[in-house]
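Model it.
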Amino acid sequence: MKASLVLKMGQSLTMTPQLQQAIRLLQMSTLDLQAEIQEALDSNPMLEIEDDNNPSSGDSSSAAQEHASHTQSTAQDEPDNTAPNTVETTDWTEQIPSELEIDTSWDDVYQSSASNIPSANTEEWDFTSTTSAGIDLQTHLLWQLNLAKMNDSDRMIATVIIDSIGSDGYLQESLEDIQSSFDPMQHIEMDEVEMVLKRVQQFEPTGVAARNLSECLLLQLQQLPKDTLWLAQAQTLCKEHLELLGSRDYNQLMRRMRIKEETLKAIVQLIQTLDPRPGSIIESKEPEYIVPDVIVRKAKNRWIVELNPEIAPRLGVNAQYAGFVQRADNSADNTFLRTQLQEARRFIKSLQSRNETLLKVATQILDYQRGFFDYGPEAMKPLVLAEIAEAVGMHESTISRVTTQKYMHTPRGIYELKYFFSSHVSTAQGGECSSTAIRAIIEKLVAAENPKKPLSDSKIAGLLEEQGIQVARRTIAKYRESLGIASSTERKQLL
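Modeled.
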């Protein structure tokens, strides 16, 4: 077989480091971007934060030197009036006594570092303000256990019980399982476990360590004053008829308890003041903060969109370090500076590209969803990524990166950019209606309904059809659940 040389031409797309960095910054959230910028400032000496109020980077050093020399000359000309009130650094060790007198402590001689904390007797002192991190429910209960008077055996049982309590405050294991977890040689009886459980149930928050909802509510009712109105009836309801209350069968409930509607209403109102999840009061998660990327405001009857100036500092190249770079020098130091300068310019350009793209997309969303900003969610239009991508001349994947974990601050609240994108539902007139607008209408209808006769999903679908919006009952149920609205049976209330 005769060998031959074949020449083929092809075309491939290679992502440059500049493009890779731009895409990575584009899909970052605000908090991740701030961390990325801080990391770049720490690792690259060429990057610096620009300040419009200060002189340029090239003149800042000379200005600082002039200020320092002026300060030094002024200090030399002025008389030293503070000398009598100061202690020389060479003599400060001599002020410390080698030994303390009898019946004295260091706090009597020197001020403690914790003395700036207000006393527990002062009204300004707040214990929660001195704790930086939240605690979980188990830690809170163990802290109370250490303050309780118990013998070693009961304290061991209480520790196992606390470990068996879930984040909602309920006991996750049965008393039989707790008893069987101990060594048989310890001879732990069921009576001991039940007694210790009652001790733990007296801890805060009230209702903790309950085995079911009925017991949780009863524990909270027991802590109320004895003269509380309808207290006995509420205890009877929680003990014997809680299932009827859960199913909203008020007629059967009134017959069983032999009470009138007004009395039942007062009892239910008392029970509604209780917490069915007492463990949720102790929050261990750190709060999540949302920093808006763009701000929309109305000025002179015109909507204006602008970038949040606080999301990222204005970066620039340090002129002093950049002046050290020599073109013809191939030394290691010069190569390092040249590489850092290139990376700094690339980072600044990628950051500018991110801000420009974000502003373009936010502006198009504002123009398209102007009805939302003027009239509310009910005026939301159906919108997909392809429409914005076509308007700004970008790919849909780019629009998806821009709208993910990016937030817009508006007079109506803070929304993620993806909030303004929704599917469409056909109307009877041949038009389109946004699913977000339908959710807003459902929420409005539920808010205006009769609490004694709440609207069912079929009834809501009928009301929407009267407005020209044809939506199936299952779709109504899906939208209702996404809004966190309970079913009509669960929303039924007494008048």
